[in-house]
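Project standup — Tuesday

K.O.: blocked on the structure for the chain from last sprint. Re-posting the sequence here as requested.
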Amino acid sequence: MSALTDPHRESFRLSMLLSDTRYRSYTFQGIALAFLIAVMAFLGANLLSNLAAQGLDISYEFLGSPSGYDINQRPIEYDSQSTHLRASVVGILNTLIVAVLACVSATVIGVFAGVLRLSNNWLVRKIMAIYVEAFRNVPVLIWILIIFSIMTVSLPAPSAFRGEDPDSSLLFGAFAFTNRGVYIPAPIMGPGAWFVIGAFIASIIGIIALRRHAVKVLYDSGKVVKTFWPSVALFFLPTLIVFFLLGRPIGLDLPALKGFNFQGGIQLRGSLIALWFALSIYTGAFIAENVRAGIQAISRGQSEAAAALGLRPRRIMNLVVLPQALRVIIPPLVSHYLNITKNSSLAIAVGYMDVTGTLGGITLNQTGRAIECVLLLMLFYLVISLSISTAMNIYNNSVKLRER
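H.V.: unblocked you, prediction finished:
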Protein backbone atom coordinates (compact mmCIF):
# COMPACT_ATOMS: atom_id res chain seq x y z
CA MET A 1 0.00 0.00 0.00
CA SER A 2 1.46 3.38 -0.98
CA ALA A 3 2.07 6.18 1.48
CA LEU A 4 -0.50 8.37 -0.26
CA THR A 5 -3.30 5.83 0.33
CA ASP A 6 -2.18 4.79 3.82
CA PRO A 7 -5.08 5.71 6.15
CA HIS A 8 -2.71 5.81 9.15
CA ARG A 9 -0.41 8.39 7.55
CA GLU A 10 -0.86 11.83 9.09
CA SER A 11 -1.90 14.53 6.61
CA PHE A 12 0.44 17.49 6.11
CA ARG A 13 -0.25 20.67 8.11
CA LEU A 14 1.62 23.99 8.11
CA SER A 15 2.45 23.57 11.79
CA MET A 16 4.52 20.53 10.87
CA LEU A 17 7.12 22.84 9.27
CA LEU A 18 8.30 23.59 12.81
CA SER A 19 7.03 20.70 14.90
CA ASP A 20 7.97 17.79 12.61
CA THR A 21 11.66 16.93 12.36
CA ARG A 22 11.10 15.71 8.78
CA TYR A 23 10.37 19.25 7.60
CA ARG A 24 12.08 21.47 10.20
CA SER A 25 15.51 21.45 8.52
CA TYR A 26 13.96 22.48 5.18
CA THR A 27 12.13 25.31 6.94
CA PHE A 28 15.31 26.76 8.44
CA GLN A 29 17.21 26.37 5.17
CA GLY A 30 14.43 28.19 3.32
CA ILE A 31 14.45 31.02 5.85
CA ALA A 32 18.26 31.33 5.58
CA LEU A 33 18.09 31.35 1.78
CA ALA A 34 15.37 34.02 1.77
CA PHE A 35 17.41 36.14 4.22
CA LEU A 36 20.54 35.81 2.06
CA ILE A 37 18.61 36.80 -1.08
CA ALA A 38 17.15 39.82 0.76
CA VAL A 39 20.60 40.95 1.94
CA MET A 40 22.09 40.60 -1.55
CA ALA A 41 19.15 42.47 -3.08
CA PHE A 42 19.55 45.27 -0.53
CA LEU A 43 23.28 45.60 -1.21
CA GLY A 44 22.69 45.56 -4.98
CA ALA A 45 19.96 48.21 -4.76
CA ASN A 46 22.15 50.33 -2.49
CA LEU A 47 25.04 50.07 -4.99
CA LEU A 48 22.84 51.10 -7.92
CA SER A 49 21.35 54.03 -6.02
CA ASN A 50 24.79 55.30 -4.98
CA LEU A 51 26.03 55.04 -8.56
CA ALA A 52 22.96 56.89 -9.81
CA ALA A 53 23.56 59.64 -7.26
CA GLN A 54 27.09 60.04 -8.66
CA GLY A 55 25.78 60.11 -12.23
CA LEU A 56 27.21 56.67 -12.95
CA ASP A 57 25.71 53.42 -14.11
CA ILE A 58 26.88 49.87 -14.79
CA SER A 59 27.43 49.45 -18.50
CA TYR A 60 29.58 47.14 -20.61
CA GLU A 61 29.43 49.22 -23.78
CA PHE A 62 33.11 50.07 -23.32
CA LEU A 63 33.98 46.51 -24.42
CA GLY A 64 33.07 47.46 -27.99
CA SER A 65 35.32 50.54 -28.20
CA PRO A 66 38.94 50.45 -29.50
CA SER A 67 41.45 49.50 -26.84
CA GLY A 68 44.26 51.79 -27.98
CA TYR A 69 47.11 49.70 -26.55
CA ASP A 70 49.34 46.86 -27.69
CA ILE A 71 49.83 43.43 -26.12
CA ASN A 72 53.26 41.84 -26.40
CA GLN A 73 52.19 38.17 -26.26
CA ARG A 74 49.32 37.59 -28.73
CA PRO A 75 48.02 34.04 -29.28
CA ILE A 76 45.40 35.45 -31.71
CA GLU A 77 45.36 38.41 -34.09
CA TYR A 78 45.25 41.71 -32.22
CA ASP A 79 46.33 45.33 -32.66
CA SER A 80 45.76 48.64 -30.92
CA GLN A 81 42.57 49.25 -32.91
CA SER A 82 40.96 46.06 -31.66
CA THR A 83 38.20 46.32 -29.08
CA HIS A 84 38.56 46.05 -25.34
CA LEU A 85 36.63 42.80 -25.59
CA ARG A 86 39.25 41.29 -27.89
CA ALA A 87 41.99 42.58 -25.60
CA SER A 88 40.26 40.81 -22.73
CA VAL A 89 40.06 37.60 -24.79
CA VAL A 90 43.78 37.82 -25.51
CA GLY A 91 44.44 38.25 -21.78
CA ILE A 92 42.21 35.27 -20.97
CA LEU A 93 44.04 33.08 -23.50
CA ASN A 94 47.40 34.16 -22.10
CA THR A 95 46.22 33.24 -18.61
CA LEU A 96 44.95 29.85 -19.75
CA ILE A 97 48.18 29.13 -21.66
CA VAL A 98 50.46 29.72 -18.70
CA ALA A 99 48.04 27.97 -16.31
CA VAL A 100 47.81 24.81 -18.43
CA LEU A 101 51.56 24.68 -19.07
CA ALA A 102 52.35 25.22 -15.38
CA CYS A 103 49.82 22.63 -14.19
CA VAL A 104 51.26 19.96 -16.48
CA SER A 105 54.92 20.69 -15.75
CA ALA A 106 54.32 21.14 -12.00
CA THR A 107 52.64 17.73 -11.88
CA VAL A 108 55.55 16.07 -13.68
CA ILE A 109 58.11 17.79 -11.45
CA GLY A 110 56.12 17.08 -8.29
CA VAL A 111 55.60 13.38 -9.00
CA PHE A 112 59.25 12.95 -9.99
CA ALA A 113 60.56 14.79 -6.92
CA GLY A 114 58.07 13.12 -4.58
CA VAL A 115 59.13 9.62 -5.65
CA LEU A 116 62.81 10.53 -5.43
CA ARG A 117 62.23 11.90 -1.91
CA LEU A 118 61.79 8.26 -0.88
CA SER A 119 64.79 6.99 -2.84
CA ASN A 120 67.21 4.59 -1.17
CA ASN A 121 70.06 6.75 -2.48
CA TRP A 122 71.02 9.16 0.32
CA LEU A 123 72.36 11.85 -2.04
CA VAL A 124 69.28 11.85 -4.29
CA ARG A 125 66.98 11.92 -1.28
CA LYS A 126 68.76 14.92 0.26
CA ILE A 127 68.93 16.85 -3.04
CA MET A 128 65.16 16.49 -3.44
CA ALA A 129 64.65 17.54 0.18
CA ILE A 130 66.72 20.69 -0.42
CA TYR A 131 64.69 21.46 -3.55
CA VAL A 132 61.37 21.08 -1.71
CA GLU A 133 62.38 23.17 1.29
CA ALA A 134 64.08 25.87 -0.77
CA PHE A 135 61.31 26.48 -3.27
CA ARG A 136 58.18 26.16 -1.17
CA ASN A 137 59.47 28.49 1.57
CA VAL A 138 60.27 31.40 -0.77
CA PRO A 139 57.37 33.45 -2.24
CA VAL A 140 56.62 32.61 -5.84
CA LEU A 141 56.92 36.27 -6.84
CA ILE A 142 60.59 36.20 -5.83
CA TRP A 143 61.21 33.17 -8.05
CA ILE A 144 59.42 34.86 -10.96
CA LEU A 145 61.67 37.91 -10.66
CA ILE A 146 64.83 35.82 -10.21
CA ILE A 147 64.18 33.65 -13.27
CA PHE A 148 63.19 36.64 -15.39
CA SER A 149 66.34 38.52 -14.36
CA ILE A 150 68.54 35.52 -15.16
CA MET A 151 66.99 35.20 -18.62
CA THR A 152 67.39 38.88 -19.50
CA VAL A 153 70.98 39.07 -18.20
CA SER A 154 72.47 35.72 -19.23
CA LEU A 155 70.98 35.30 -22.72
CA PRO A 156 72.37 37.34 -25.63
CA ALA A 157 70.44 40.00 -27.52
CA PRO A 158 69.26 39.12 -31.06
CA SER A 159 71.71 41.66 -32.48
CA ALA A 160 74.57 39.58 -31.05
CA PHE A 161 73.88 36.95 -33.70
CA ARG A 162 74.43 39.37 -36.59
CA GLY A 163 77.30 38.38 -38.84
CA GLU A 164 77.19 34.75 -37.73
CA ASP A 165 76.28 31.75 -39.79
CA PRO A 166 72.44 31.47 -39.62
CA ASP A 167 72.63 27.80 -38.69
CA SER A 168 75.11 28.45 -35.87
CA SER A 169 72.82 31.09 -34.33
CA LEU A 170 69.99 28.54 -33.94
CA LEU A 171 69.85 25.36 -31.90
CA PHE A 172 69.24 22.49 -34.35
CA GLY A 173 68.56 25.20 -36.92
CA ALA A 174 65.12 25.83 -35.42
CA PHE A 175 65.39 27.31 -31.89
CA ALA A 176 66.79 30.70 -30.87
CA PHE A 177 67.42 31.69 -27.26
CA THR A 178 67.68 35.44 -26.67
CA ASN A 179 67.04 37.94 -23.90
CA ARG A 180 63.79 38.82 -25.66
CA GLY A 181 62.55 35.26 -25.38
CA VAL A 182 62.77 31.92 -27.10
CA TYR A 183 61.85 31.53 -30.77
CA ILE A 184 60.49 28.14 -31.83
CA PRO A 185 59.11 26.81 -35.14
CA ALA A 186 55.46 27.55 -35.91
CA PRO A 187 53.28 24.94 -37.63
CA ILE A 188 51.88 25.78 -41.06
CA MET A 189 48.56 24.01 -41.54
CA GLY A 190 47.79 22.94 -45.09
CA PRO A 191 44.88 21.01 -46.63
CA GLY A 192 44.42 17.74 -44.79
CA ALA A 193 46.29 18.84 -41.67
CA TRP A 194 43.33 18.06 -39.45
CA PHE A 195 43.40 14.44 -40.59
CA VAL A 196 46.96 14.20 -39.30
CA ILE A 197 45.93 15.75 -35.99
CA GLY A 198 42.99 13.34 -35.80
CA ALA A 199 45.31 10.40 -36.38
CA PHE A 200 47.59 11.61 -33.58
CA ILE A 201 44.65 11.95 -31.16
CA ALA A 202 43.44 8.47 -32.14
CA SER A 203 46.96 7.15 -31.44
CA ILE A 204 46.91 8.64 -27.93
CA ILE A 205 43.51 7.07 -27.28
CA GLY A 206 44.85 3.74 -28.57
CA ILE A 207 47.85 3.91 -26.21
CA ILE A 208 45.59 4.59 -23.23
CA ALA A 209 43.30 1.70 -24.22
CA LEU A 210 46.29 -0.62 -24.67
CA ARG A 211 47.69 0.19 -21.24
CA ARG A 212 44.32 -0.26 -19.57
CA HIS A 213 43.94 -3.60 -21.29
CA ALA A 214 47.42 -4.64 -20.09
CA VAL A 215 46.55 -3.71 -16.51
CA LYS A 216 43.26 -5.62 -16.71
CA VAL A 217 44.99 -8.74 -18.05
CA LEU A 218 47.61 -8.47 -15.31
CA TYR A 219 45.00 -8.21 -12.57
CA ASP A 220 42.80 -10.97 -14.02
CA SER A 221 45.37 -13.56 -15.03
CA GLY A 222 48.75 -12.35 -13.77
CA LYS A 223 50.10 -12.29 -17.32
CA VAL A 224 52.36 -9.35 -18.23
CA VAL A 225 51.49 -7.73 -21.56
CA LYS A 226 54.33 -5.80 -23.21
CA THR A 227 53.26 -2.20 -23.77
CA PHE A 228 56.40 -0.12 -24.29
CA TRP A 229 57.25 -0.84 -27.92
CA PRO A 230 53.59 -1.14 -29.02
CA SER A 231 52.97 2.25 -27.41
CA VAL A 232 55.95 3.75 -29.23
CA ALA A 233 54.68 2.31 -32.52
CA LEU A 234 51.15 3.62 -31.91
CA PHE A 235 52.53 7.06 -31.03
CA PHE A 236 54.52 7.51 -34.23
CA LEU A 237 53.45 5.17 -37.03
CA PRO A 238 49.76 6.07 -37.65
CA THR A 239 50.48 9.80 -37.62
CA LEU A 240 53.51 9.46 -39.91
CA ILE A 241 51.62 7.23 -42.33
CA VAL A 242 48.74 9.70 -42.62
CA PHE A 243 51.22 12.59 -42.81
CA PHE A 244 53.08 11.16 -45.82
CA LEU A 245 49.99 9.75 -47.55
CA LEU A 246 48.43 13.24 -47.57
CA GLY A 247 51.59 14.81 -48.98
CA ARG A 248 53.00 16.42 -45.82
CA PRO A 249 50.14 18.86 -45.12
CA ILE A 250 51.86 20.31 -42.03
CA GLY A 251 54.99 22.41 -42.47
CA LEU A 252 57.17 24.50 -40.20
CA ASP A 253 57.85 28.23 -40.22
CA LEU A 254 61.38 28.48 -38.83
CA PRO A 255 62.62 31.63 -37.08
CA ALA A 256 65.30 33.55 -38.97
CA LEU A 257 67.43 36.56 -38.06
CA LYS A 258 66.26 39.54 -40.10
CA GLY A 259 67.50 42.97 -39.18
CA PHE A 260 67.87 43.37 -35.45
CA ASN A 261 65.49 40.60 -34.40
CA PHE A 262 64.33 37.12 -35.31
CA GLN A 263 61.32 36.86 -37.59
CA GLY A 264 59.00 33.93 -38.16
CA GLY A 265 58.14 31.07 -35.86
CA ILE A 266 56.57 31.58 -32.45
CA GLN A 267 58.09 33.89 -29.87
CA LEU A 268 57.84 32.75 -26.27
CA ARG A 269 58.68 35.91 -24.41
CA GLY A 270 60.94 35.81 -21.40
CA SER A 271 58.06 36.92 -19.18
CA LEU A 272 56.00 33.88 -20.21
CA ILE A 273 58.89 31.47 -19.65
CA ALA A 274 59.79 33.03 -16.29
CA LEU A 275 56.19 32.88 -15.08
CA TRP A 276 55.71 29.33 -16.38
CA PHE A 277 58.95 27.99 -14.92
CA ALA A 278 58.53 29.75 -11.55
CA LEU A 279 54.96 28.53 -11.06
CA SER A 280 56.02 25.01 -12.07
CA ILE A 281 58.97 24.58 -9.73
CA TYR A 282 57.25 26.43 -6.87
CA THR A 283 54.02 24.41 -7.01
CA GLY A 284 55.95 21.25 -7.88
CA ALA A 285 57.61 21.42 -4.46
CA PHE A 286 54.20 21.30 -2.76
CA ILE A 287 52.99 18.50 -5.04
CA ALA A 288 56.16 16.53 -4.23
CA GLU A 289 55.25 16.56 -0.54
CA ASN A 290 51.71 15.40 -1.35
CA VAL A 291 53.11 12.56 -3.47
CA ARG A 292 55.53 11.56 -0.72
CA ALA A 293 52.74 11.58 1.87
CA GLY A 294 50.46 9.58 -0.41
CA ILE A 295 53.10 6.91 -1.00
CA GLN A 296 53.97 6.68 2.68
CA ALA A 297 50.27 6.30 3.50
CA ILE A 298 50.31 2.91 1.74
CA SER A 299 51.17 0.00 4.00
CA ARG A 300 54.64 -1.43 3.48
CA GLY A 301 53.03 -4.84 3.36
CA GLN A 302 51.53 -3.94 -0.04
CA SER A 303 54.99 -3.48 -1.55
CA GLU A 304 56.36 -6.56 0.18
CA ALA A 305 53.49 -8.69 -1.09
CA ALA A 306 53.98 -7.42 -4.63
CA ALA A 307 57.72 -8.10 -4.43
CA ALA A 308 56.99 -11.63 -3.18
CA LEU A 309 54.95 -12.18 -6.34
CA GLY A 310 58.00 -11.31 -8.43
CA LEU A 311 57.11 -7.76 -9.50
CA ARG A 312 59.98 -5.38 -10.11
CA PRO A 313 60.25 -2.15 -8.09
CA ARG A 314 59.11 0.03 -11.03
CA ARG A 315 56.01 -2.10 -11.58
CA ILE A 316 55.30 -2.17 -7.85
CA MET A 317 55.29 1.62 -7.84
CA ASN A 318 53.18 1.94 -11.01
CA LEU A 319 50.69 -0.88 -10.42
CA VAL A 320 50.40 -1.19 -6.64
CA VAL A 321 51.53 1.89 -4.74
CA LEU A 322 50.61 4.88 -6.91
CA PRO A 323 47.05 3.75 -7.77
CA GLN A 324 46.29 3.49 -4.05
CA ALA A 325 48.17 6.67 -3.21
CA LEU A 326 46.02 8.69 -5.62
CA ARG A 327 43.20 8.88 -3.09
CA VAL A 328 45.57 10.86 -0.84
CA ILE A 329 47.31 12.84 -3.58
CA ILE A 330 44.43 14.09 -5.73
CA PRO A 331 42.36 16.15 -3.21
CA PRO A 332 45.21 18.56 -2.35
CA LEU A 333 46.28 18.51 -6.01
CA VAL A 334 43.04 20.33 -6.87
CA SER A 335 44.04 23.19 -4.57
CA HIS A 336 47.48 23.41 -6.16
CA TYR A 337 45.96 23.70 -9.64
CA LEU A 338 43.66 26.45 -8.41
CA ASN A 339 46.62 28.24 -6.83
CA ILE A 340 48.56 28.07 -10.10
CA THR A 341 45.66 29.69 -11.96
CA LYS A 342 45.27 32.45 -9.38
CA ASN A 343 49.01 33.01 -8.93
CA SER A 344 49.28 33.61 -12.68
CA SER A 345 47.88 37.07 -11.90
CA LEU A 346 51.43 37.93 -10.73
CA ALA A 347 52.34 38.08 -14.42
CA ILE A 348 52.13 41.86 -14.42
CA ALA A 349 55.34 41.92 -12.35
CA VAL A 350 57.35 40.82 -15.42
CA GLY A 351 55.17 42.43 -18.09
CA TYR A 352 53.26 39.34 -19.20
CA MET A 353 49.81 40.53 -20.26
CA ASP A 354 47.34 38.11 -18.75
CA VAL A 355 43.68 38.92 -18.07
CA THR A 356 44.61 40.84 -14.91
CA GLY A 357 47.00 43.02 -16.91
CA THR A 358 44.55 43.68 -19.77
CA LEU A 359 41.02 43.71 -18.37
CA GLY A 360 42.00 44.43 -14.77
CA GLY A 361 44.83 46.79 -15.63
CA ILE A 362 45.00 48.90 -18.78
CA THR A 363 41.33 48.57 -19.77
CA LEU A 364 40.20 49.46 -16.25
CA ASN A 365 42.47 52.53 -16.12
CA GLN A 366 41.51 53.77 -19.59
CA THR A 367 37.75 53.37 -19.24
CA GLY A 368 37.35 54.04 -15.52
CA ARG A 369 34.88 51.13 -15.37
CA ALA A 370 36.34 49.60 -12.21
CA ILE A 371 33.20 47.82 -11.03
CA GLU A 372 32.49 46.26 -14.42
CA CYS A 373 36.09 45.11 -14.92
CA VAL A 374 36.40 43.66 -11.42
CA LEU A 375 33.08 41.82 -11.79
CA LEU A 376 34.26 40.30 -15.08
CA LEU A 377 37.57 39.29 -13.49
CA MET A 378 35.75 37.67 -10.59
CA LEU A 379 33.47 35.82 -12.99
CA PHE A 380 36.41 34.56 -15.07
CA TYR A 381 38.40 33.22 -12.11
CA LEU A 382 35.25 31.75 -10.58
CA VAL A 383 34.38 29.87 -13.78
CA ILE A 384 37.94 28.59 -14.22
CA SER A 385 38.21 27.50 -10.58
CA LEU A 386 34.88 25.69 -10.65
CA SER A 387 35.78 24.01 -13.94
CA ILE A 388 39.09 22.74 -12.54
CA SER A 389 37.40 21.54 -9.35
CA THR A 390 34.68 19.73 -11.31
CA ALA A 391 37.12 18.02 -13.67
CA MET A 392 39.42 16.90 -10.84
CA ASN A 393 36.50 15.67 -8.72
CA ILE A 394 35.27 13.57 -11.65
CA TYR A 395 38.76 12.11 -12.05
CA ASN A 396 39.02 11.56 -8.30
CA ASN A 397 35.77 9.58 -8.31
CA SER A 398 37.01 7.47 -11.22
CA VAL A 399 40.22 6.38 -9.47
CA LYS A 400 39.09 6.10 -5.86
CA LEU A 401 39.15 2.70 -4.23
CA ARG A 402 35.83 0.87 -4.22
CA GLU A 403 35.25 -1.82 -1.65
CA ARG A 404 33.53 -4.96 -2.81
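K.O.: great, moving the ticket to review. The beta strands are 176-178, 181-184, 186-189, 250-253, 256-258, 261-263, 266-269. The radius of gyration is 28 Å.
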